[in-house]
Amino acid sequence: VDANFVQVLQPFLKYAEDEEITGASRLRDLGLDSMRAIQLLFAVEDTYGMSLPDELLTDSTFDTAGSLWAAIESVRVHS
Amino acid sequence: VKLAEILEVTAEHAGRTDTEAAFPIEALEVMRSSGLLRLVVPAEYGGLGGTVADMLDVTLQLGREDMSVAMIFAMHCQQALTLVRHASPELAASILPDLGYLASVTTERGKGGNLLMSESTVDSDGSQLKIDRDAPIVTGGPHADGYLVTTLAPDATSPNQVSLVYVARHQVEVEVLGGWQPLGMRSTLSVPMRLTGQVPVGQTIGEAGGFRSIVTRTFGPLAHLGWSAAWLGTAAGALSRVVQHIRSDRKQFDTESELLLAGLARVRGRIDTVHASLRHTLQAFQTADLSTTPVQMLVNTLKVFAAEECFTAVNELVDLVGLRHGYLTGSPLRLERALRDLRSASLNYSNQRLVLANGSLVLLDQQVHLV
Lengths: 79, 371
What we know:
The complex is a heterodimer of chains A (about 80) and B (about 375).
Chain A: H1 3-9, H2 34-48, H3 65-78
Chain B: H1 3-20, H2 25-34, H3 52-65, H4 67-86, H5 89-95, E1 102-105, E2 123-124, E3 128-139, E4 146-152, E5 162-168, E6 172-176, E7 190-200, E8 204-205, H6 211-248, H7 258-287, H8 293-327, H9 335-343, H10 351-364
Parallel strand pairs in B: 1-4
Antiparallel strand pairs in B: 2-3, 3-7, 4-5, 5-8, 6-7
């Protein structure tokens, strides 16, 4: 995951504190609930100027920083 | 299992347990001795091998007699199925053959009913979990043979890393910290309790810190399905008693009254649409991917909708039959008890919290996929 993406994530992970965010970081464990997930989605879409299709918005997409980044990449590659 | 006998015992004691806010020990005893508490335990473990549909059917029947007993039974089955589906084979083999009544210890002061957070730490030396768990509401806790307890995972670094642990009653010290004096569902005896003691690490159900996926796949949907069945049974029982009353006392009721007929039709419609939603959600639970937003919204909506509609149905019946049979405690129609019991439905895991969660989920499904 790139450094810019970590900055996008940071405000939504209230338990991340000083912990380094990597692809394996589990977003739910770090404080991402369903209300914050939608706000994170909007931040991602604003930052990268794209829209994630409904089919990608599952629990597994929001599982780790890496799985969310992979979903973003899959859309960017195809657009 | 002779369900008729269980229903009879339930009905016989329902008035007294409501008045005294006492646990329905007679009904529990006959459920235990008849094997009904092992309804959803697979036959290989000596259970009846029943399905979720069987669990809901029995809950509906019990709800017609006593909503508290229906709630107790539904939540017991929710926990039994959680063990069946998520416990390790060794743990399942050690618990399920002698399964008694299970109570859940998932509430915490400060976080209410939020299942996915905990502030209850456990110490572990790698082989034992040292538990000291305080819970404000444990339904039937003093009468349970075992508990499913949420705590933080031993190495948790955030309050969202919640584990589910099976605790047998004999493994821990059980203290009842207060009483239960509510408006309705009085015989659920949902008291504050504290459990202290040690259990082997192997009694963790699923992965340490992995309760979230159990909630999504099993624990959450079964709570909503089970509660909704209990509430639907309560409303259906109330309408049935009212209809029998009208039929047997036609001098008192004008059966050509348009007010009465339209009112009855509305109540019946509410009950039928909750039932349709219950069956449809059950089918989705059995066949659809529970990690997807449309299915999660559907399951949440069942709970919110059933809570509102079943209460409204009985509230409308009160108006239709009037003060004597709708509002007084001695009436054989038992509408005032059903009304008090069903008032809890929107609070028993807050509708407001679920509606908020669904609001976020709606925004995740731009195409509005219908399940």
